[in-house]
Write a structure and sequence with these properties.
This protein is of the alpha+beta class. The protein has six helices and twelve strands. 32% of the residues are buried. The structure holds biotin.
Length: 240
């Protein structure tokens, strides 16, 4: 695994994209990592907060062979599981909140931003951006109630390089699991599986039972009328 390390970058996802375009990155599992991002990208145009030298900020690049566009959610499952497995090695039980967050006791410890480049019906390359809060001691007021870090959970500091290597090794391991095993483990660690959840859809507040995630990445919700409804990314907002 080749790691391209920078002290400061705009965003590791953007840098990874540039390095792919210029042909510098052309092998599976290449990694772009930074101590600080000036403009870390979060989901839905949000900013990803991280102080300098405190947390893991990196992007893993994959060049899948013949992976159909319909299977775009596979990479989300793999990386989510890898983070859960990594947290377990620290004695922490994390949960996967569909579609892209990893929580500890309902607080977000890791955000994932995946960007796919397509070629016809296939995915040509995948940039998996991961922001994992490790040594952050204090988050800004606006997010402090919903964000966490390993330091806040365990009251100890970690060496960022060793943690990056540990996580990358676990990622490679999970990447080689078969699809059935990945799906099973993914669901075992899914936040509020088979529980009633509150969410907003189309401006309305609704309740449903979370029945898991379909292979196309849609969330399956069992509604009060006994019917199942599948929701795509960005269609719903959780209320937790
Ligand atoms: C989210 O909003 O939950 C997704 C956050 C993803 C943040 C990571 S940090 C490393 C990589 N580079 C970016 O600009 N974003 C991702």
């Amino acid at each position: 695994m080749k790691i391209y390390h920078y002290k400061s970058l705009n965003s590791t996802n953007i840098e990874a994209e540039k390095l792919i375009k210029s042909g510098i990155i052309n092998t599976n599992f290449s990694v772009v990592n930074a101590d600080f991002q000036e403009n870390g990208k979060g989901q839905q145009g949000n900013f990803w907060y991280s102080s300098a030298n405190k947390n893991l900020l990196f992007s893993i690049v994959l060049f899948p062979q013949n992976l159909k566009v319909e299977r775009f959610f596979d990479s989300t499952k793999i990386v989510s599981l890898a983070v859960i497995k990594y947290l377990k090695t620290k004695g922490i039980e994390g949960k996967i909140k569909w579609p892209n967050d990893i929580l500890i006791n309902d607080k977000k410890v890791c955000g994932i931003l995946i960007e796919n480049t397509l070629l016809g019906e296939n995915i040509r390359n995948i940039i998996i951006g991961i922001g994992l809060n490790i040594n952050e001691e204090k988050f800004p007021e606006e997010i402090s109630k919903k964000a966490s870090s390993l330091f806040l959970e365990l009251k100890k500091y970690f060496d960022l390089n060793s943690e990056l290597n540990e996580l990358l090794n676990i990622f490679k391991l999970v990447y080689n699991y078969d699809k059935v095993k990945i799906d099973e483990l993914y669901h075992q660690n899914l936040f509020r599986l088979n529980e009633e959840v509150k969410y907003i859809f189309d401006g309305q507040q609704l309740f449903g039972i979370n029945k898991g995630v379909a292979s196309n990445g849609q969330l399956i919700m069992l509604l009060a009328d006994g019917k199942k409804h599948n929701y795509s990314f960005k269609e719903i907002e959780w209320i937790i």
